[in-house]
């Protein structure tokens, strides 16, 4: 594998925990194929504890801080950060997750071998908050045709484990102002003909809270329904797809918490 320079794009905001950020950045240090730079967007003022953790790793990881005066939300923060990424290949990373040591080695190799692929991700292992318990593994289809079919019902790649080509994301206007913003972006890119892939291997540990499932209630549903309208508007969903997804989302988000948990396990 040729020596390839690439960026990692993160966003941090005031309410995040410094311990989780430390573990996240430590996983960047442990990469077999380390990033050339890490662009960290500070989405509004952050705590001294978070700033101190960033400074501890700044030189070792070549961290570039992009400081925003106010919290603008993930979509706008990532779009701003993307402007500061100097390299064509950009990996996403959430500041409370942990990448396995071979993550970037696998993804860089894949993106080199398949230059037609604009977006790739991998399987992720969903764990509890202290990372001691495996809740589930999110397995995703490997090939583009299967990914497109999968995308009609659920997000087709795992955002925290994504690597994409910057030029392709910029060509479609970056992250749209919808929620979830990543699903909106993938929908636009699929409509525009960009190719996707998923590496069939767990490359990231995702931290999930005790209320990860139950907090996805009515407010989360409102965002999803706006996303469905966006997907129909851009031609990603047909009218029948839209109606079916509308029914499914309501059926999943509105029941009691015990039912939500059971449905989530079945979906995984």
UniProtKB/TrEMBL annotation:
Residue ranges of coiled coil: none
Keywords linked to the UniProt accession: Cell inner membrane, Cell membrane, Glycosyltransferase, Membrane, Transferase
Record GO terms (molecular function): glycosyltransferase activity
Family matches, as InterPro entries: Glyco_trans_2-like, Glycosyltransf_2, Nucleotide-diphossugar_trans
Domain Glycosyltransferase 2-like: 7-159
Family: Belongs to the glycosyltransferase 2 family.
PANTHER family reported in the protein's UniProt record: GLYCOSYLTRANSFERASE, GLYCOSYLTRANSFERASE EPSE-RELATED
Protein name per its UniProtKB record: Glycosyltransferase
Biological source species: Pseudomonas lactis
């Amino acid at each position: 594998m040729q020596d390839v320079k690439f960026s990692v794009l993160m966003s941090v905001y005031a309410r995040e925990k410094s311990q989780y950020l430390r573990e996240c950045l430590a996983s960047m240090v442990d990469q077999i194929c380390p990033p050339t730079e890490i662009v960290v967007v500070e989405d509004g003022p952050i705590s001294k504890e978070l700033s101190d953790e960033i400074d501890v790793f700044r030189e070792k990881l070549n961290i570039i801080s992009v400081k925003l005066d106010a919290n603008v939300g993930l979509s706008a923060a990532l779009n701003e950060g993307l402007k500061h990424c100097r390299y064509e290949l950009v990996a996403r990373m959430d500041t409370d997750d942990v990448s396995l040591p071979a993550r970037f080695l696998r993804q860089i190799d894949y993106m080199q071998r398949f230059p037609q692929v604009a977006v790739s991700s991998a399987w992720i292992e969903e764990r509890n908050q202290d990372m001691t318990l495996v809740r589930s593994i999110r397995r995703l289809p490997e090939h583009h045709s299967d990914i497109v079919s999968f995308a009609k019902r659920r997000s087709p790649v795992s955002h925290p484990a994504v690597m994409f080509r910057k030029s392709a994301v910029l060509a479609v206007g970056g992250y749209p102002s919808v929620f979830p913003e990543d699903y909106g972006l993938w929908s636009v890119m699929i409509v525009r003909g960009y190719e996707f892939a998923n590496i069939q291997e767990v490359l990231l540990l995702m931290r999930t809270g005790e209320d990860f499932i139950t907090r996805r209630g009515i407010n989360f549903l409102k965002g999803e329904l706006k996303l469905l309208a966006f997907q129909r508007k851009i031609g990603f969903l047909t009218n029948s797809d839209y109606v079916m997804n509308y029914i499914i989302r309501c059926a999943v988000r509105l029941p009691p918490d015990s039912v939500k948990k059971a449905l989530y396990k079945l979906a995984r």
